[in-house]
């Protein structure tokens, strides 16, 4: 199993002081920055794009930035995020007409690639593309908003995804996103996840460092 990664979702940060808040959460022990991109089309909310990512890089954020695209169409925006400094780009297969082509585009642009599965999306999209994946992201809420409740059926889906990764023999990360807290993260890790997105649980905590430490302890 790969070393656990904690990736705070800056969707729950203070957008008026995003650089500072992102630096603070990294200084408090976070590994990656999870960057949620919503287009008011694929999901009913609107957030941030490549310009904001570039500003974070200019501000001095050097940690890996894990871009979660909740946009449709996908392909046109991929090179913009790569140029802005994305490390990893994930997208929802339903939002792409040609999943294999989009994965190729992400890799060609120099980023790592991930596929995202909504709660009701079957894992079948993995069937012919495992060799192109660096990460599989299992949504544990319906995408669009932070602060929702973890959907318990996700645990079974994580176990299934873990089996597929182990069978592939490849070092693909298994990420979970939505409603992750220090209370449920132990069960989520036991189901096979190794990369944990948490928005409100971390940014709404009084002490980022204590919250991240509690999560690591619960992961074991
Ligand atoms: C939801 C986003 C998540 C969200 C998680 O569409 O993809 O990354 O910010 O937030 P919490 O941890 O508050 O559920
Ligand atoms: Zn996300």
TrEMBL record:
<dbReference type="InterPro" id="IPR013785">
    <property type="entry name" value="Aldolase_TIM"/>
</dbReference>
<dbReference type="Pfam" id="PF00834">
    <property type="entry name" value="Ribul_P_3_epim"/>
</dbReference>
<keyword id="KW-0413">Isomerase</keyword>
<feature type="binding site">
    <location>
        <begin position="199"/>
        <end position="200"/>
    </location>
    <ligand>
        <name>substrate</name>
    </ligand>
</feature>
<feature type="binding site">
    <location>
        <begin position="144"/>
        <end position="147"/>
    </location>
    <ligand>
        <name>substrate</name>
    </ligand>
</feature>
<feature type="binding site">
    <location>
        <position position="179"/>
    </location>
    <ligand>
        <name>substrate</name>
    </ligand>
</feature>
<feature type="binding site">
    <location>
        <begin position="177"/>
        <end position="179"/>
    </location>
    <ligand>
        <name>substrate</name>
    </ligand>
</feature>
<feature type="binding site">
    <location>
        <position position="177"/>
    </location>
    <ligand>
        <name>a divalent metal cation</name>
    </ligand>
</feature>
<keyword id="KW-0862">Zinc</keyword>
<keyword id="KW-0170">Cobalt</keyword>
<dbReference type="GO" id="GO:0019323">
    <property type="term" value="P:pentose catabolic process"/>
</dbReference>
<feature type="active site" description="Proton donor">
    <location>
        <position position="177"/>
    </location>
</feature>
<feature type="active site" description="Proton acceptor">
    <location>
        <position position="36"/>
    </location>
</feature>
<dbReference type="InterPro" id="IPR000056">
    <property type="entry name" value="Ribul_P_3_epim-like"/>
</dbReference>
<feature type="binding site">
    <location>
        <position position="36"/>
    </location>
    <ligand>
        <name>a divalent metal cation</name>
    </ligand>
</feature>
<comment type="function">
    <text>Catalyzes the reversible epimerization of D-ribulose 5-phosphate to D-xylulose 5-phosphate.</text>
</comment>
<dbReference type="GO" id="GO:0046872">
    <property type="term" value="F:metal ion binding"/>
</dbReference>
<feature type="binding site">
    <location>
        <position position="34"/>
    </location>
    <ligand>
        <name>a divalent metal cation</name>
    </ligand>
</feature>
<protein>
    <recommendedName>
        <fullName>Ribulose-phosphate 3-epimerase</fullName>
        <ecNumber>5.1.3.1</ecNumber>
    </recommendedName>
</protein>
<feature type="binding site">
    <location>
        <position position="9"/>
    </location>
    <ligand>
        <name>substrate</name>
    </ligand>
</feature>
<dbReference type="GO" id="GO:0006098">
    <property type="term" value="P:pentose-phosphate shunt"/>
</dbReference>
<dbReference type="GO" id="GO:0005737">
    <property type="term" value="C:cytoplasm"/>
</dbReference>
<dbReference type="InterPro" id="IPR026019">
    <property type="entry name" value="Ribul_P_3_epim"/>
</dbReference>
<comment type="pathway">
    <text>Carbohydrate degradation.</text>
</comment>
<feature type="binding site">
    <location>
        <position position="68"/>
    </location>
    <ligand>
        <name>a divalent metal cation</name>
    </ligand>
</feature>
<keyword id="KW-0464">Manganese</keyword>
<feature type="binding site">
    <location>
        <position position="68"/>
    </location>
    <ligand>
        <name>substrate</name>
    </ligand>
</feature>
<dbReference type="InterPro" id="IPR011060">
    <property type="entry name" value="RibuloseP-bd_barrel"/>
</dbReference>
<comment type="similarity">
    <text>Belongs to the ribulose-phosphate 3-epimerase family.</text>
</comment>
<keyword id="KW-0479">Metal-binding</keyword>
<keyword id="KW-0119">Carbohydrate metabolism</keyword>
<dbReference type="GO" id="GO:0004750">
    <property type="term" value="F:D-ribulose-phosphate 3-epimerase activity"/>
</dbReference>
């Amino acid at each position: 199993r790969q070393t656990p990664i904690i990736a705070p979702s800056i969707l729950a940060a203070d957008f008026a002081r995003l650089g500072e808040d992102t630096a603070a959460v990294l200084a408090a022990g976070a590994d990656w920055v999870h960057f949620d991109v919503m287009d008011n089309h694929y999901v009913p909310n609107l957030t941030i794009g490549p310009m904001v990512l570039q500003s974070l890089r200019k501000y001095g954020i050097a940690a890996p930035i894990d871009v979660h695209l909740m946009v449709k169409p996908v392909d046109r925006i991929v090179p913009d995020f790569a140029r802005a400094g994305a490390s990893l780009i994930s997208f929802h297969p339903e939002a792409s007409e040609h999943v294999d082509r989009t994965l190729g585009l992400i890799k060609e642009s120099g980023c790592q690639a991930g596929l995202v599965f909504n709660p009701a999306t079957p894992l079948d999209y993995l069937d012919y593309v495992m060799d192109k994946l660096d990460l599989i992201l299992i949504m544990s809420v319906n995408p669009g908003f932070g602060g929702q409740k973890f959907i318990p059926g996700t645990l079974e889906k994580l176990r299934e995804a873990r089996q597929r990764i182990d069978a592939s023999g490849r070092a693909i990360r298994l990420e979970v996103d939505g409603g992750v807290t220090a209370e449920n993260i132990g069960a989520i890790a036991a189901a096979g996840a190794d990369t944990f997105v948490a928005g409100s649980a971390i940014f709404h905590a009084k002490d980022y460092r204590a919250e991240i430490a509690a999560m690591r302890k619960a992961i074991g």
